[in-house]
Amino acid sequence: MEQRTLGGQGLRVSALGLGCMGMTFAYGGQDDTESRATIERAIELGVTFLDTADMYGPHTNEELLGSVLAGRRDEVVLATKFGNEIGPDGQGTGRVNGRPDYLRGQIDGSLARLGTDHVDLYYQHRVDPDVPIEETWGALGELVEAGKVRYLGISEAAPDTIRRAHATAPMSAVQTEYSLFTRDVEDNGVLATCRELGIGFVPYSPIGRGFLSGTIRRTEDLPEGDWRRNSPRFQGEALQANLRVLDEVNALAERKGVTPTQLALAWVLAQGSDVAPIPGTKRRRYLEENAGAADVTLTAEELEAIEKVAPVGVASGERYPAAAMRMLHQ
Ligand SMILES: NC(=O)c1ccc[n+]([C@@H]2O[C@H](COP(=O)([O-])OP(=O)(O)OC[C@H]3O[C@@H](n4cnc5c(N)ncnc54)[C@H](OP(=O)(O)O)[C@@H]3O)[C@@H](O)[C@H]2O)c1
């Protein structure tokens, strides 16, 4: 698997990573045995950039990774996140917390659950509008000095926040949603700011939360209790409009002789050597298919054809329900 460099501090990751969130959180159908086998297979295939967060569960996702990685911690680049506040009862509060005393407690909890003495990449998951970013990032810089964290990142932040955080402690990666259906970072200044400052970019949900695979055509295709049932993009008229675009993307994949998911991932990979997407799956079958995308090269003509059917802003419906949308781009 190709290795890519994120940022100017020396972080090297596999070009394709593995998003572990859905193994225990947000998406229905938990199967710990298959999830463990998927992580092990990922390592075999060289997909060693693993993504989790304290909030996924909460805590169960980090615990799952910790148990699989026992004795083989050094074979992976481990990324986790803090900031979606978890209360003393171990449940999410629905708030964001960027206070230094809070994050100092969170990193110690993450290290214990992951069974390691350091995290390779530690992200601020959401920006706390009530705490100056310099305060949060001052404390993050201290975690690097203490050796608990090797590299720092931020998720879903606005350009000015990225700039101020990076000026406080060097930032290696920005993680934000980015796919053929969610190209906002191309025109809201986020990608341009990363490039100007030499910060790597990690697209999350690069398969459009599974939509671009073509396997979800009705809201009812999603398991009971699945988070996506509440996502505006997977409902009503927006879903119908998105399916029309999807059919055109699928036709391009067929012409190329690759699966729709491979086309979607190859497109993200083609956006630059400073980009390392983290497609999520809890199945070996999908993981193997997705890893194949690393060998798919898109020609200029193919990229142009994709551009025609899936330009910036093509998706219908917001990517989160209203309350969660307000927590983005702070
Ligand atoms: N920073 C943030 O705020 C944030 C937000 C969301 C996600 N993330 C991170 O990004 C990672 C990836 O995002 P995501 O999981 O939301 O979305 P995604 O990678 O776009 O899609 C994942 C979905 O696609 C399905 N899938 C994967 N490969 C497939 C294939 N070859 N064929 C058919 N279906 C396939 C998965 O199914 P199965 O699960 O059934 O295998 C899952 O339902 C997450 O795991 C998480 O680590 C970060």
Automatic annotation (TrEMBL):
SUPFAM superfamilies: NAD(P)-linked oxidoreductase. Residues 16-309 form the NADP-dependent oxidoreductase domain. It comes from the Bacteria. The keyword Oxidoreductase applies. InterPro entries: Aldo-Keto_reductase, NAD(P)_OxRdtase_dom_sf, NADP_OxRdtase_dom. CDD domains: AKR_AKR13A_13D. Keywords: Oxidoreductase. The keyword Lipid biosynthesis does not apply. GO terms for cellular component: cytoplasm. GO terms for molecular function: oxidoreductase activity. This is Aryl-alcohol dehydrogenase-like predicted oxidoreductase.
